[in-house]
Amino acid sequence: MSTATPFTAPAPAPATGSVLLAARNVVKSYGGVHALKGVNFEIHRGKVTTLFGENGAGKSTLMKILSGVEKPTSGEIELDGERVAFTSSSDARDHGISIIHQELSLAPNLSVRDNIFMGRELRTPTGVDFAEEARQTRALMTDLEEEIDPMTLIQDLRLGQQQVVEIARALSVDSRILIMDEPTSALSASEVEVLFKVIRDLTSRGVSIVYISHHLEEALQVTDYAVVLRDGRITATAQRKDIDLGWIVRNMVGENFDLGSPPTGYAFGEAALEIDDLSVADESSTDAPAIDHLSLKVRAGEIVCIYGLMGAGRTELLEAAAGRTHLSVTGGRVLLEGEDMASLSIAQRIARGLVLVPEDRQRDGLVPTMSVGSNLSLASIRSFVRGLLMSAAAERELVGESIRNVHVKTAGAGASIRSLSGGNQQKVVIGKMLATEPKVILLDEPSRGIDIGAKAEVFRLLAENAKKGLAVVYSTSEVGECLSVAHRIVVMRRGKISAEFGPDANKDDIMAASGEAVAV
């Protein structure tokens, strides 16, 4: 019978910290585009090697080559000092290399158990041993401190829990090398701490970790070796003792980098969005509502940041305001320039000028089979209708203008949306909603999974539109993002507003108001 035990690893080889896997002069080209330009990258035995870089720098391409998903155009891969050539991800996995991909690759209509063991089912002479698969799934969930039933469908889990399942699937395989590409992008602070404990446990038993994250301060907590990739080349390497946050940012994006500041020099307009005594039921719990009699007013031209830990109600607040129908609004009103939105659908609210950029851009913000241009024009399609026909010229004009306005880096409007980096995909989602000429834009974790440079571009874009009178509300679980462009910071805790601050707020005060422990 085939078995797999969570968190087991081969006995550590001698010389912990020595090079286990290395890329030598690796080049990867897609037609005339060179994604990697002679990269030399080393993974150290029993250590965490963190790879930093902006979206499009080549990080994911390099990891796909090391995990057998892609083949290099030229160059060599060495494992234990011997040259290897992986024919597939399964071949790499047989050599002890597993990867957690940045974008979730789960089957939403299958259970947690079936997703974890998909393609490598535990078999007996009489068939699949579902009971043993369920037992091992429970053990994985226990180690990751998540109370998730093995038979729960993926589509019924929140995004952070889906990320945990993705991690559990990789951990269920005995691996010598585990590549983690943005593993914490949807995790709460407590879930990140659990993952870090798992990482320390794995490295103590000789497993090598490659860690990729846009959460720079977070990544420094687990880093042993740091490598910076920029425009397909390695630009800097160092040990943890020799680096700090400034070293990472300088090598990624250059000197004098600034995330942004609130736009100034104009007066706010009248109230654009009013949330009045809003209550939303929590479908996963009967103990307390997701939103509990919350009121909030946002003026035209104002940028409001909503900060809170996972489960504070940030997403439910924004989705309820936007009219997402899966939520149960039990009381209160949402007003756009004084008009009650209660009877209006999502499409009608968009037409009135109230739009939402969702947290999960892959599932809710983009159509992956469509082009960049088609995604950008999707929410504005009614404006192209001329009689019984649609004006292709009007659509082309809007798409071209949107690409310029939100600074999307793309080969053209006809390029596949999948060809863009995460940061550029996010700008397409934002550009799609801005193309509708909204009065209020709601953004749920707009910087999730994008690098610090793309993050700065997104916040500059929001500031530019606020100067034109757009009311902006964005949520975040990163306290540093509260102190970038927001005029006002609203802290949520257990479905209520626990505090409000101005742009000169103190980081510790914001964290304390959310119920988050503050380091002393």
Automatic annotation (TrEMBL):
One annotated Gene Ontology cellular component of this protein: plasma membrane
Top-rank taxon: Bacteria
Domain ABC transporter as annotated: residue spans: 21-256, 273-519
Topology class, membrane: Peripheral membrane protein
Xref: Pfam families: ABC_tran
PROSITE patterns from the UniProt entry: ABC_TRANSPORTER_1, ABC_TRANSPORTER_2
Listed InterPro entries: AAA+_ATPase (IPR003593), ABC_carbohydrate_import_ATPase (IPR050107), ABC_transporter-like_ATP-bd (IPR003439), ABC_transporter-like_CS (IPR017871), P-loop_NTPase (IPR027417)
GO MF: ATP binding; ATP hydrolysis activity
Localization annotation: Cell membrane
Keywords: ATP-binding, Cell inner membrane, Cell membrane, Membrane, Nucleotide-binding, Repeat, Sugar transport, Translocase, Transport
Listed SUPFAM superfamilies: P-loop containing nucleoside triphosphate hydrolases (SSF52540)
Chief subcellular location: membrane
Protein name: Sugar ABC transporter ATP-binding protein
Organism: Trinickia dinghuensis
